[in-house]
Amino acid sequence: MEHNDTSSASSSRPLDLPHTLEDKKIKALPPACYYISDFITEEEEKAILDKVNTAPKARWRQLTHRRLQTWPSDLVKNTLLDARPLPDWLEQPVVARLLSIPLSDSQPENMFHDSPHQRPNHVLINEYPPNTGIMPHKDGGAYHPVVCTVSLGSALCLNLYKSKEDGALDLEPVWRILQEPRSLLITTADLYTEYLHGIEPIATDVELSEKTIVNWDLLRSPELYKDGLNQRRTRISLTYRDVLKVSKLGNKLGPMFKCP
């Protein structure tokens, strides 16, 4: 059973909010990983992108091939010093919807019910132009093991990797997830702690099919990839997590610890 959010009334396409997350589980992956293809509307996507793109220049951190923003601030020694709430445009509609969807009929709680703050308190915004990716990595111990990623602007493949018995990284992905614009991907449990994730620095995702993409049956528009290709455009990702350690010390030490 699926329902439409009332805030999507003006959108050209309805939302795809499930009755429970169980309805959107990626069955080919270890539990629990979920994919919702239409988590926000086109209008909401545009509004968020406008906020991202008009953020003060000081908000962007420039890396070698890409740039990112952190809200409300960076972490210092795995601790969030700035305890201010997220800005409204990152709270609504995303956080409200995240907290409104129960895990299953037998588990009416949302996915943050056992996190320290029972909601996301940190957002990392990454910009991925074509030919840009990120090396396979784990997110580390600073966060509660629930990662919620909203994709904006373009689709791309997220690769999941497993280390070999000797500890070396197996460079062949174990699984591939196609993340469409306006979609939500939630990874938890073993997928957070045991597997690495990364994005290849390519302009075109290739060999896309129901045999190679684990969330193929949950995609909004699999017909767009019937030739097995996805031509990337610039993609913005919003990654919502709950930082375990929060200190109000940064609020007392002044603006040196804060982003504008």
From TrEMBL:
Fe2OG dioxygenase domain segment(s): 119-244
GO cellular component, as recorded: nucleus
Subcellular location per the Swiss-Prot or TrEMBL entry: Nucleus
Family matches, as PROSITE patterns: FE2OG_OXY
Keywords assigned: Dioxygenase, Iron, Metal-binding, Nucleus, Oxidoreductase
Major localisation: nucleus
Gene Ontology terms for molecular function: dioxygenase activity; metal ion binding
UniProt similarity note: Belongs to the alkB family.
PANTHER family registered for this protein in UniProt: ALPHA-KETOGLUTARATE-DEPENDENT DIOXYGENASE ALKB HOMOLOG 6 (PTHR46030)
The protein's name in its UniProt record: Podospora anserina S mat+ genomic DNA chromosome 7, supercontig 1
